[in-house]
Backbone:
């Protein structure tokens, strides 16, 4: 699924099942993977979505209203308490960076990806 808002540079890849989440954890063995938990009803999440849309990288999108079980799975696998919005960088199957709410900026995510490449 592409982003719901036109004119973005980021490629949003909606995760909707356990298999797609597992693929992201496996892919993190090769490169940093960006997970973004997004709420369709939260204005702060909307602002974070705009920040994430500025990234040149692929963003694995978990819409919490559509995939609550995946959101919970991320929490159990990473040990990071669920928040929304939330950005998590996976590397080698582990969370190496995370931010939530107003701390989610394109600049911060890009820096975390570079530092964990």
Residues:
């Amino acid at each position: 699924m592409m982003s719901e808002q036109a004119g973005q540079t980021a490629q949003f890849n909606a995760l909707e099942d356990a298999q797609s989440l597992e693929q992201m954890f496996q892919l993190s063995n090769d490169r940093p993977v960006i997970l973004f938990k997004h709420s369709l009803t939260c204005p702060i999440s909307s602002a974070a979505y705009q920040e994430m849309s500025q990234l040149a990288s692929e963003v694995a999108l978990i819409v919490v209203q559509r995939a609550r079980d995946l959101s919970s799975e991320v929490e159990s696998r990473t040990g990071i308490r669920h928040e929304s919005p939330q950005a998590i960088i996976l590397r080698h199957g582990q969370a190496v960076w995370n931010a939530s709410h107003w701390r989610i900026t394109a600049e911060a995510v890009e820096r975390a990806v570079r530092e964990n490449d």
Remarks:
- The longest strand covers residues 94-100.
